[in-house]
Amino acid sequence: MGKELVVIIGGPGSGKTTIIEGLTARGYTCYPEISREVTLEARKQGIEQLFLEKPLLFSELLLEGRKKQYHSALAEDSRIVFIDRGIPDVLAYMHYIGDSYPVFFDQACREYKYSKIFFLPPWEEIYTADEARYENYEQAKLIAAHLTETYRSYGYDLIEVPKDTPDNRIIFILGHLL
After folding, report:
1. How far apart are CA 39 and CA 53, in angstroms?
2. Residue 100: which CATH number?
3. What is the largest distance, in Å, between two alpha-carbon atoms of the chain?
4. In what order do the strands lie in the sheet with 4-10?
5. Phi and psi of 27, rounded to 5°?
6. pTM here?
7. DSSP string for residues in 7-49
8. DSSP letter (8 states) at residue 162
């Protein structure tokens, strides 16, 4: 078996970070979501909400960051690398806000392919907002719908992770890989 680049997707507050942290604690190679990094970097430069103020620039920075993550993941010694959100997430968010984007966004989704996609469905009981997550639960559900639609449009079969304890969700994911 070759290298597996496994992406965990889902709307805001669906449990992605908890799953990635759990996989990391078990010794798996994991790449965190980079949008917080991009947002914090913009704040240092005086742009409070880059996604709201300059959505295309934000998306371009995310796209570049996710391409770098992809190349880094390929270079890892580990057979399986987990990534919190993939390149098609960028397009899903652009669709969500109704923004158009240059053709190179679409080309990146076609060029950079992942092995498996695990989808965490919206889950109101665990949803919380914070300073980097300004969407409400209804918006989170809409984003989740755009994510599934976008990934499927690039030919991915999504594996839906059941709503369960973080440990059971991780066991479910690993059971589809090992």
Report:
1. 11
2. 3.40.50.300
3. 46
4. 29-31, 80-84, 4-10, 116-120, 158-160
5. 95, 5
6. 0.91
7. EEEESTTSSHHHHHHHHHHTT-EEE--SHHHHHHHHHHTT-TT
8. P
User: In whole angstroms, what is the distance from residue 94 CA to residue 24 CA?
Assistant: 29
Write out the residue range of the structural domain in which residue 48 sits. Answer: 4-175
Total domains present in the chain: 1
6 in Cβ contact with 83 (< 8 Å): yes
Find, among 111, 109, 72, the residue nearest to 90 by Cα: 109
As a whole number of angstroms, the distance between CA 38 and CA 107 comes to 22
**Amino acid at site 102:** P
Rounded-to-integer distance, Cα 42 and Cα 33, Å: 16
Least confident of 23-32, 124-133, 137-146: 124-133
Tens digits of residue pLDDT in 11-23: 888 999 999 999 9
Q: Tell me which amino acid residue 55 is.
A: P
